[in-house]
Amino acid sequence: MPKDSGQFSAWRPHPWHGLSVGPSPPDVVHAFIEITPFDVVKYEIDKQSGYLRVDRPQRSSSVPPALYGFVPRTYCGSRVAALSPASSRGDGDPLDICVLTERPVDRNEVIIDARVVGGIEMIDGGEADDKIVAVLASDPVYGRARDLEDLPKALIDRLVHYFASYKTMPGEENKVSIRSTYSVTHAWQVVRASMADYEQLIGEINGRREG
Question: Which domains does the chain have, with CATH numbers?
Fold first, then answer.
C-alpha cells in the first residue's frame, strides 16, 4: 500500500495548477504526460478544464521519440526567455519535458517522477520553447543517468530531429530552430526560472481577481 494512501483529493486536481512540481525540483520533477511515442495525434492540456484536448493530427510521418508532456506549476515567461537570448519572449505555456524509459508506456494522462538530465534550446516563432530532457527516475536502464552525456547520442539526435521538423511540411517555411542542447546544470536553471515565472503569473492573476 502506498505510504501516502491516507491522503487524497476529493476532486480531480488540475494537472497544471493542482499537482506539485515534483518531489525534489529542479532535480526530480513531476511530468504530466500528454503524448506517447505511439500517438499520431497531438494532444494538449486544455488550460480551462485540465482535460486533454485533441490539438491536431501529427502532420508529418514522425512520431514523438519519447514520452512528452509538461512540468506542473511552471510557466515559460520572461525568466525562461532570458536564458534563451535569441528569443523575444517565453511561449506562455508550462515547461515542456521529454521522458526516456526503457519500457514502452502506451498511455497518456499519467504522472511520472522524472529526473532532469539536460534540455534542448528550441525557439518557435521567436518564442522560447525549451524541451527539458529527463529519464524515468526508477528506470533500470536510464535511471542512473545524471547528465545528457550519460544517454546514447542517437536518442538525443532523434529528439532534436523530431522537434526541428515536426511542425514543417515540404514547401513550408520552418519557424522552429534548435539553438543547442544543454547540460543538467543549465536545465536546472530553466526549471527554476519556469517555477519563478509561474509564481509571478499566479500572483498577477490573484491580484486581478482581488482588484
Answer: 28-168+175-210 (3.90.80.10)
